[in-house]
Amino acid sequence: MCYVLGVAGTQGAPMGRPREFDTDEALDRAMEVFWRQGYEATTLGDLTAAMNIGKPSLYAAFGNKEQLFRLVLDRYSEGPGSYGVRAAEQPTARQVVEAFLKGTVETTTQPQCPQGCLGVQGALAASDDGVAVHDLLAAWRERARGELELRFRRAVAEGDLRSDADPGRLARYVMTLSFGLAVQAAGGVARDELFKVVDEVMLSWRS
Amino acid sequence: MCYVLGVAGTQGAPMGRPREFDTDEALDRAMEVFWRQGYEATTLGDLTAAMNIGKPSLYAAFGNKEQLFRLVLDRYSEGPGSYGVRAAEQPTARQVVEAFLKGTVETTTQPQCPQGCLGVQGALAASDDGVAVHDLLAAWRERARGELELRFRRAVAEGDLRSDADPGRLARYVMTLSFGLAVQAAGGVARDELFKVVDEVMLSWRS
DNA sequence: CTACTTATGTACCGATTGGAATAAAAGGAC
DNA sequence: GTCCTTTTATTCCAATCGGTACATAAGTAG
């Protein structure tokens, strides 16, 4: 129905003039800008300059600024933000937590990417123009917490988390740490400083 | 030297036409807007409308948008953000941590104020226009961490924190939690959910 | 070839941006 | 009363905002 990513027709090349840029690469460029500047502080000029396309091409391929951000967020989830699902694959709750927090530090302090987390700093505060994206990111963060809670429920069932543990509360505790690490990374705190926080957490982890 | 807040002259009323608005009240109005929308997403029109003054009055009294933000941040530190120094007055490190985190939750979920923390969401991401404020807030956050570290050093000296504890690392751990709580508050997470996180922290606190 | 479809660059839209110029207004000093 | 200082509201500024109209270019379908 909606070939927003330039999917070809039923056979061979699509009709009309072919797109002169790669949509995925353009999304990566847009991601870098939104990630570094946030949604509202990013202008269409910033985007078209980074993506190296004109405004009509941007609107034809991605809709508008807000829809572009949604596509960027999806791509972020499957790219830089994918450490969460990988961490959940660890065998025990303790290993999940350590992998998740270390993944947070690594991703939010990657030298070749903006510091911090797109899902946190993309629109933490917003005017009326940005409230839709603000709410989108709040839901994105809560979704991550929910999946971590599910993983902790499994850990209780599997016995590597005490039966009196509260998976929901533990998940919120770990997400609190992850968001806090992202805030400090956005402020330029060094990677090894943040890894020390993870060490402290694991020392006090009661499992 | 700089009577930015309308301080009177050496005796009696200052010369010239008297200011028709209260600067502190105007700063409170500006604080609410910056707090809710962030620095870059806030326009001069938003500010003058909330402060109920004209643009020339704003510039005459506060300089420009960035200087106004600096004054607002100072006022925030002495107002809503003052729970930090109060928490540091608690007798033991454990009580300091609990008071600090509970103060964070209370302040960032105050119903009559914007949700979250001005020092976190004021400019977590920024374009070139906002990088000065971004750096200002990063320094503001690091300063808070430094003061918490000092308090933990005192706790080690006083014996209510183990002598092998790392005050710097502990301070960063607690600040990580505070920032993470602020992020979730900004996203609309309910106050009691965040208090549960504080409970979890205090259960695992090793002192 | 012609017809059709899609993407592109240029130019443009009204609205808004942060900020300044200007003159009138409101007070004290004398 | 006349000066002088400061604040005020109105007006204006060039630049930029997100978004669009339009003509042209580049491809497929027949």
From TrEMBL, chains A, B:
InterPro entries linked: DNA-bd_HTH_TetR-type_CS, Homeodomain-like_sf, HTH_TetR, Tet_transcr_reg_TetR-rel_C_sf, TetR_C
List the stretches of this chain annotated as a DNA-binding region: 43-62
For whether the record's keyword set contains 4Fe-4S, the answer is no
Q: What are the alphabetically sorted keywords of the record?
A: DNA-binding, Transcription, Transcription regulation
Record domain HTH tetR-type: where = 20-80
Q: Which domain of life is it from?
A: Bacteria
Q: What is this protein called?
A: TetR family transcriptional regulator
Species for this entry: Lentzea cavernae
